[in-house]
Amino acid sequence: MATDDFNLPEELQREAKVASAIERLHDATVGRCTKCDNGFIEEKSRKIRQASDLIYGNVQYCDCYKAYQRYRNYIVSEIPKEFWGVRDMQMDFGEVINKKISTYITKFDKVFESGFGILFLGSPDGIKKPNSGTGKTTIAAKVLGHALESGKTAHYTTMHSYFHLIYRSMDDDGVKYKKLIDEIDSVDFLVIDEVGKIKKSEYVYYRFEDMLRRRSSQLLVTLIVTNMNEVELEEFVGPSIMDIFRNTMMKIILVGQSHRNRRFISTQKAINLIP
């Protein structure tokens, strides 16, 4: 992003960052590929199998263009880059959790039709195990990746970022923020991470519940990620919002060793920083 972009209004800075990230992605994929012509490959022996073949002839997408399109969707959906590769990653969270995740993704069409989400929770009371880095956001990002590959719309945000947009939308020049909030609220699959990491207020409760009820009534899929356990979460959001969670989401509790720490150690070994 150019230095001048920092002088732009915040909502335009956001657009500039997305545009810049997409441009860099294009340079790193299609721009570096030596096998195609700007993402397309001509196949002289290709047979015409459908009507679109009469328009595009013997041309097909190169793998570099397919990668560009996939990760461009990730950028627009604001999925953090560290989770771009998790869609096809094999993950082991134990037999029970693995089966829940596998079934959820296998029956993705049913999930979409029913608007059935996931509530990721931290350790229950009395279990002293790590709550951070246990894989909750990783699984949520994996679901978003499947949603995008299935042609659905998706978005990732944190509770803090979401309410930052809401508060900015109340400014005199908040029209663009309102439009962005409407777009986020209406995606097919929405992940709200770090729920609980924001100061409690009546307004937060009202807006959060209003958004959740509207999404539930439209059968849109919402995934909630928090390090709180169920008791702590209910104390934070209140019984009304907790009732929405319990009736529209599958509950997954992840505890144990930090996946983030294991990934960090693996990365250090890969670049020979540690033996």
Walk me through what this model shows:
This protein has 275 residues and is of the alpha/beta class. It folds into 2 domains: 3-76, no CATH class; 81-264, 3-Layer(aba) Sandwich (Rossmann fold). The chain contains 12 helices and 7 strands. Strands 4-5-6-3-7 form a 5-stranded parallel β-sheet, sandwiched between helices. Strands 1-2 form a two-stranded antiparallel sheet. α7 (159-169) runs antiparallel to α8 (175-185). It is globular.
What is the strand tally? 7
> Numbering strands along the chain, what is their spatial order in the largest sheet?
4-5-6-3-7
Mean pLDDT, rounded to whole units?
Answer: 82
How much of the sequence lies in strands comes to 5-15%
Structural domain tally = 2
Write the layout of secondary structure elements.
Elements (H helix, E strand, L loop, with lengths): L9 H19 L11 E3 L8 H6 L2 E3 L1 H14 L18 H12 L1 H7 L2 E5 L14 H14 L4 E5 H11 L5 H11 L3 E5 L8 H16 L3 E5 L4 H8 L1 H10 E5 L5 H12 L5
Parallel strand pairs: 3-6, 3-7, 4-5, 5-6
Antiparallel strand pairs: 1-2
Structure keywords:
single chain, 275 residues, alpha/beta, Rossmann fold, 2 domains, 12 helices, 11% strand, globular, disordered N terminus
Write a compact overview of the structure shown:
By secondary structure, this protein is an alpha/beta fold. The chain has helices spanning 10-28, 51-56, 63-76, 95-106, 108-114, 136-149, 159-169, 175-185, 202-217, 230-237, 239-248, 259-270; strands at 40-42, 59-61, 117-121, 154-158, 189-193, 221-225, 249-253.
